[in-house]
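FAQ: What does the model actually see?

It sees only this:
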Amino acid sequence: MTPTIRGIARSRVVAAAGVLSFLAATGTAQDIVREPAAAPGLLHVGPFYVTPSFRISSLGLDTNVFYTSTDRRTDFIAHGGPGLEMVVPVHGALTLRADGTLGYLYYARTKSQRRLTGAGLGRLAYEGDRLHTGAQYSYTRSYGRLGFEVDRRVEQEQQQAQADLRYAIGSRFAIGVRGAAARHDIDAGQEFFGADLRRNLTRDAYGGAANLSYALTPRGGADRLLLRRRCRPLPSARRRARPDRKGLRDERRRAFTVSRHAGS
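And it is asked to produce this:
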């Protein structure tokens, strides 16, 4: 190897070592430096952080109001209303949250389908550096179609209580558990082809989940993705599957998670 070639090779090694040192320093800084926490609300009034909102759930034309195969009725529909989110920092990482929304389902021509809807959520949570835990209660009042089997809108209420815990082990591993109980209550006096919907569809549901996750990048990155593998839920859990309430923050992290669901 000539001196010129040897010098070029040595320069490349030194440059590569410098780049690796820079990347290592950058990765270490990401673990230490934290972004400043944003205010939990739009308005700050005394101990309360308040965020008002207005949501439009649906707006358009319903071409079959009563889900009939003949003599269809077309009508203009709009659904929405105001909402309010309130956060109270209790002490340190402990916070109390209360959300509420009020909606009105409006049909321009079909007055019988107009309804008042709403939802509420209360949550007490602790979100520390490693430990995230909390308990919440939610209530929902809705008016809508239950599914393909019941071709009519139904007034119903749902109440749900939930507790969850997540603990970070180091900068990559985390374990978590969650348990929930829900009550689905159909209003009385509603029938479908002679069947009492309240007696047949009112039910209680219980469920839980446990997970172990590993992050491909250390905690603190804002662009982490979630790679999740879930065990197949038990038959009773599949029959009573339901969407999570708004207010439970989805964690978007780059991780591999194994979960087991149980229900009865």
